TrEMBL record, chain A:
Protein's GO biological process: attachment of GPI anchor to protein; clustering of voltage-gated sodium channels; detection of mechanical stimulus involved in sensory perception of touch; GPI anchor biosynthetic process; protein localization to cell surface; proteolysis
Keyword Aminoacyl-tRNA synthetase (UniProt): no
Pathway, per record: Glycolipid biosynthesis; glycosylphosphatidylinositol-anchor biosynthesis
Bias (Low complexity): 358-370
Species this chain originates from: Scleropages formosus (Asian bonytongue)
Subunit structure: Heteropentamer. Part of the GPI-anchor transamidase complex, consisting of PIGK, PIGT, PIGS, PIGU and GAA1. Interacts with GPAA1. Interacts with PIGT; this interaction, via a disulfide link, stabilizes the expression of GAA1 and PIGK and links them to PIGS.
Pfam family, one: Peptidase_C13
Taxon lineage: Eukaryota, Metazoa, Chordata, Craniata, Vertebrata
GO molecular function, a single term: GPI-anchor transamidase activity
InterPro entries per record: GPI_transamidase, Peptidase_C13
Signal peptide as annotated in the record: 1-28
UniProt region (Disordered), positions on chain: 358-379
GO CC list: GPI-anchor transamidase complex
Designated name of the protein: GPI-anchor transamidase
UniProtKB/TrEMBL annotation, chain B:
Protein name: GPI-anchor transamidase component GPAA1
Function statement: Component of the glycosylphosphatidylinositol-anchor (GPI-anchor) transamidase (GPI-T) complex that catalyzes the formation of the linkage between a proprotein and a GPI-anchor and participates in GPI anchored protein biosynthesis. Binds GPI-anchor.
Species in which this protein is naturally found: Scleropages formosus (Asian bonytongue)
Keyword Membrane carried by entry: yes
A GO cellular-component term linked to this record: GPI-anchor transamidase complex
Transmembrane segments: 311-329, 349-371, 392-411, 431-464, 471-493, 527-549
Subunit structure comment from the entry: Heteropentamer. Part of the GPI-anchor transamidase complex, consisting of PIGK, PIGT, PIGS, PIGU and GAA1. Interacts with PIGK.
InterPro entries xref list: Gaa1
Pfam families per UniProt: Gaa1
Membrane topology reported for the UniProt record: Multi-pass membrane protein
Keyword Nucleus in annotation: no
Subcellular location: Endoplasmic reticulum membrane
Length: 402, 550
């Protein structure tokens, strides 16, 4: 039975090897859980649309509101190329400003939110309802420069911040026109249907702001407002040297809250809902989360206010040297004018990524299963979908724009 | 921040004020031009001249030549579309010597600030209202009063608001706000609120009509103080003259007020730096305006600086008086309508028309005489009587006024035959309608004038008929005639000012008021004198004719 005595360790080793083989996916599922944590939000890029709708010197505080949010959003990582800033009037260079080129948010000139590197995309009279809706829906004339476009896709988390004078169901633009809550809700629905956002956070600081989000009906929308219907949002403090009120209360406390957030913060939306209670704000802030699919307690502030770049780890490799066939057989000479993306990482098995994908990607995944051939002499796209934009199922490519 | 927190600037201002304490002989035009230029303003002058229709004995002027000096502080970053005006009338003597100093001090301070969005015009006008009229006419390219002036070389855009300063001493105890302007026009109430707000903020005592506010509104004394203040405002507004240099701005839709410094016997005194701070604050607020002041009331009466009576409250009072007239007219119409045989409803025919038309024409001719003759006939009067021109004018006016009382007697000598019962009713109907329309229009333009006239004329119009006791009614009518109303108002005004006067003084004041009224009309376009002489007096004469109807 000498063989039996060395059979047992051998059996153990074999068993161990089998177990190893079976448990081979275990390191994959570690990555899986890590990756699932990384991609729990499902977004890959962040955009912000910050709008101040009122002009005139005595509406200084609305410009200061918008610039404070701009400041926070930039500080947390969203670059100017991903921010559409619309200011209806120029307070920094207003003739009445005793400190030109500054816009203060705290009295005694403690904090200048205008700074050195503010990029205003829509200024003065360009801030109109039509321009705002066109920015949101993407229906801009071809001549519009990139800085004035919201180039979001179905994996973008967008922050939309509106401030100005409003009423029950409307927001006043520039003393001459209004946008209604119905128009806004329809614009968001257009955005949803065109897959222009993954999740959208809508913040509004006006009188009776809660009326503006009453009519939303598209999924993945979360909304916050500074006051309920029938209440006025009040301003915070005047500065006696400048002579106007500097900020509105809700945004003032929002700014204070955001100053404590850093890119690695784990603060969630539930804390944001608590900003500016009635004792400080004199109005009752409201919020709406019924259209949002995730639990607000698991939504990080930086999901919307910051731009946290995510990296996906995969073990698959893709060979980039194989020639690819262009799928359009009818007109092989057709050129594609839209930006084309090549992805470095091919997709791995979907089981590695444990979160569910939004349905939009599934529809475009059918066209991207085969790798197309390249046009002779033309650029080498990897995948060309219907609109010429690369969608590869189940993956978050590190996009490189050609 | 704030005016004259810099000790150097404070010292400079004090030096300036001490220099200005000496009486000025005329206006130091060259010195002012140099002083303003040294402060970095764009300085221009305007010369003007006017010969008054007759010498003004109150201010002792007849042929007026003068120069206005004004400096424009351009807004550093703004387009030159709007302007604010700070003016100080420069008079010989010590009545306004400190205001110019404060104006120059403010100019220097304002020059160093970044936040001006409107040009600021610092105006020093000579011969107060006449100079101001010349400047305003030159600025707006109008010529309504026949003055001759040189055109303005420098302009600052459309004027949004103006303040006029009158300071006679460098230490004051209170600031008085004067709002009443030409023809009873008032600036927007927001300007008064602005002044009051800054007075409270800086802690300066502020008055209106020279009376302090009281806190006890419910007590009888507080209430009577409020009534007195309001009555003073009513009387001042009814006179139709501008009570400060600001009064002429209002015609051009420029909100303006005058601020007068008063030095009386109080313990707590304020110096000019505080007044400067107040003016700086007011100007800063006016600078931040995006539109002209229009949100508050234009028609109001102030029982105190913190309370007002709006037109919605006081107009119904006038409406009730006018209703009396309309009811009386209705009564007459009904009486006329109940038919006497042979006559149509309303107008009688034949000689009846003449007997109605004649008093009308003669009354109006008397009115025209009252309007034109005093000035035209002053030379002849001076030749024949030992009076000065001013006295000649005034006494001629009074003579024509009194001569009108004899009219009915003369009219009936002209006319043959008798007037009918219907005749006087028709005449009265016409007179009442005429009066109602006249008083209504007057009340719309200048409520106080319309109301005071209505108070005295409506009872007369209501009860007068040929059948009331003649002598008594004649006495009552004379006592309630426009001239006597003026006389009584003068006495009431003096009482309210707590400076009661004797009968003789009152009479002299009455004469000077008449001369001032005629001069105001000729110099600035005040409408009170033509209104009274051409319209109200003939209307009263019509009623007088009815009383003596035969």
């Amino acid at each position: 039975m000498a063989t039996c005595s060395c059979c047992f360790p051998l059996m153990m080793i074999t068993l161990f090897l089998y177990i190893l083989l079976y448990l081979q996916p275990v390191p994959c599922s570690n990555v899986e859980t890590k990756a699932s944590q990384l991609f729990s939000s499902g977004h890959t890029n962040n955009w912000a649309v910050l709008v101040c709708t009122s002009r005139f010197w005595f509406n200084y505080r609305h410009v200061a509101n918008t610039l404070s949010v701009y400041r926070s959003v930039k500080r947390l990582g969203i670059p100017d190329s991903h921010i559409v800033l619309m200011l209806a009037d120029d307070m920094a260079c207003n003739h009445r400003n005793p400190k030109p080129a500054t816009v203060f948010s705290h009295k005694n000139m403690e904090l200048n939110v205008y700074g050195d590197d503010v990029e205003v995309d829509y200024r003065g009279y360009e801030v109109t309802v039509e321009n705002f809706l066109r920015v949101l829906t993407g229906r801009l004339p071809p001549s519009t420069p990139r800085s004035k476009r919201l180039l979001s896709d179905d994996r973008s988390n967008i922050l939309i911040y509106l401030t100005g004078h409003g009423g029950n169901g409307f927001l006043k633009f520039q003393d001459s026109e209004e946008i209604s809550n119905v128009e806004l809700a329809d614009a968001f629905e257009q955005m949803w249907q065109k897959r222009r956002y993954n999740e959208l956070l809508f913040i509004i600081d006006t009188c009776q702001g809660a009326s503006m989000y009453e009519r939303f009906y598209s999924p993945n929308l979360m909304a916050l407002a500074s006051s309920q219907v029938g209440e006025d949002s009040l301003s915070h403090q005047p500065d006696l040297a400048i002579g106007v009120h500097l900020m509105d209360r809700y945004t003032f406390y929002l700014l204070e809250f955001l100053e404590d957030i850093h890119p690695a913060s784990q603060t969630t939306m539930n804390d944001l809902f608590k900003v500016c209670p009635k004792s400080q704000c004199a109005s009752t802030p409201g919020h709406r989360t019924d259209l949002f699919q995730r639990d607000p307690g698991s939504v990080l502030i930086t999901d919307f206010f910051g731009s946290v770049r995510k990296v996906e780890i995969t073990k698959e490799t893709v060979n980039l040297t194989t020639p690819i066939v262009y799928e359009d057989h009818e007109n092989p000479n057709r050129r594609i004018g839209t930006p084309q993306m090549a992805s470095f990482w091919a997709f791995g098995p979907s089981s590695c990524l444990c979160s569910s994908r939004p349905t939009a990607s599934n529809t475009s995944s059918t066209s991207s299963k085969t790798l197309p051939q390249a046009l002779p002499g033309g650029p080498k796209p990897l995948v060309v979908g219907e609109k010429g934009i690369c969608h590869i199922t189940g993956m978050t490519p590190f996009h490189l724009l050609l | 921040m704030g005016l004259l927190s810099d000790p150097n600037r404070r010292r400079a201002l004090t030096n300036l004020l001490t220099r200005l304490n000496t009486p000025l002989w005329g206006m130091p035009v060259d010195w002012l031009v140099k002083a303003m230029q040294a402060r970095g303003l764009e300085v221009f002058t305007q010369s003007f001249s006017r010969t008054l229709p007759f010498p003004d004995e109150n201010k002792e002027r007849y042929m007026v030549h003068g120069t206005n000096v004004y400096g424009i502080l351009r807004a550093p970053r703004a387009p030159r579309t709007e302007a604010l005006v700070l003016s100080a009338p420069c008079t010989p003597g010590s009545s306004n010597n400190q205001a110019v100093g404060l104006l120059l001090g403010l100019a220097q301070y304002f020059r160093g600030q970044m936040y001006w969005a409107k040009d600021i015009i610092f105006l020093v006008n000579e011969h107060d209202l006449i100079g101001m009229q010349a400047w305003l006419e030159g600025y707006h390219h109008t010529n309504t009063t026949g003055m001759s002036w040189t055109p303005l070389e420098g302009r600052g855009g459309s004027i949004q608001a103006a303040l006029s300063l009158e300071l006679s001493s460098d230490i004051i105890t209170s600031l008085d706000l004067v709002l009443e302007g030409l023809n009873g026009q008032l600036p927007n109430l927001d300007l008064a609120n602005l002044f009051y707000a800054f007075c409270q903020k800086i802690g300066v005592l502020c008055t209106i009509q020279g009376k302090l506010q009281r806190n006890d509104w419910d007590s009888a004394a507080g209430y009577s103080q409020a009534v007195q203040t309001m009555l003073l405002m009513v009387l001042k507004q009814a006179s139709g003259r501008p009570w400060g240099d600001h009064g002429l701005f209002l015609r051009y839709h420029i909100e303006a007020a005058s601020i007068r410094g008063i030095n009386s016997f109080r313990q707590y005194k304020t110096d000019l730096t505080t007044v400067g701070k107040l003016l700086e604050g007011m100007f800063r607020k006016l600078n931040n305006l995006l539109e002209r002041l229009h949100q508050s009331y234009f028609f109001y009466l102030l029982p105190s600086l913190s309370r007002f009576v709006s037109i919605g409250y006081y107009m119904p009072a006038f409406g009730l008086l006018a209703a009396i007239l309309l009811l009386r007219a209705l009564d007459l119409w009904v009486q006329l309508g109940s038919p006497a045989p042979g006559t149509e409803d309303g107008l009688p025919f034949g000689p009846g028309v003449l007997s109605v038309l004649t008093p009308l024409i003669i009354s109006h001719l008397t009115g025209v005489a009252l309007y034109t003759l005093p000035i035209m006939a002053q030379q002849t009067a001076v030749e024949h009587f030992p009076v000065s021109e001013t006295e000649a004018v005034v006494l001629t006016a009074i003579a024509i006024y009194t001569a009108g009382l004899a009219l009915p007697h003369n009219t009936h000598r002209v006319l043959s035959g008798e007037g009918t019962e219907e005749g006087w009713r028709v005449l009265k109907l016409i007179a009442i309608f005429y009066m109602a329309v006249l008083l209504g229009c007057t009340a719309l333009i200048n409520f106080s004038l319309g109301f005071i006239l209505a108070l005295t004329l409506v009872p007369v119009a209501a009860f007068i008929t040929p059948h009331v006791p003649r002598v008594l009614s004649a006495l009552v009518m004379v006592l309630l005639s426009p001239g006597s109303t003026l006389l009584f108002s003068i006495f009431v005004y003096q009482e309210l000012q707590e400076a009661p006067i004797t009968l003789l003084e009152g009479w002299n004041l009455f004469l000077s008021v008449i001369s001032q009224g005629i001069l105001d009309h000729n110099l600035y376009g005040s409408l009170v004198y033509p209104l009274i002489s051409l319209l109200v007096y003939p209307c009263w004469l019509l009623l007088w004719n009815i009383l003596f109807w035969k």
